[in-house]
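Retro notes
What went well: the complex prediction finally ran end to end.
Inputs used:
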Amino acid sequence: GAVVSQHPSRVICKSGTSVKIECRSLDFQATTMFWYRQFPKQSLMLMATSNEGSKATYEQGVEKDKFLINHASLTLSTLTVTSAHPEDSSFYICSAVSRDNARNIQYFGAGTRLSVL
Amino acid sequence: GENVEQHPSTLSVQEGDSAVIKCTYSDSASNYFPWYKQELGKRPQLIIDIRSNVGEKKDQRIAVTLNKTAKHFSLHITETQPEDSAVYFCAASNSNSGYALNFGKGTSLLVTP
């Protein structure tokens, strides 16, 4: 099946620093990637939709200057949490939709657990 | 926007029993309804999905039913096993939104031996 790689799996950083998370589709081209945030024992909340070669579409309440998304190629999207603060600590998960998949199934990365001290 | 409600939030069954999780959605334009299983600290895994042109779909011990008129869909797991224990999420999406998923709050299923 389709594989989505997300890196790093865990990051601990100091308040005020920026953190970059990578999401790669390993064996398929992804026209669209999604970024979700998940708090402990809660559901996945969509943050933004990322389309290759265009600006990301952010959900209401998500600061685009805080969460920078770049989708430079059909296999890579990055999320940068700028000037991270403790309240940004969360589990961030990406997903990718295959360009050739008529079913538009979303394949998820393994997630990145961000802890901001 | 789309609002997906999921019940129950927790479900405990004995091994071999059936488990049913129900979801409702608000946007009549939604036409794709996947179910994901997520084990603790792991990525969500698609277990079954259904589209609005189908009323029921089955894959071995797992089945999903969809009632478009009532805007609800359900996951049925038969002959449950301890390894079925996980959090299950329903979701709804439509092609107009590029298939972005709107998730329910999840159901924590515990199957006891």
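What we learned: The mean pLDDT of chain A is 91.
What to try next: split runs per interface for comparison.
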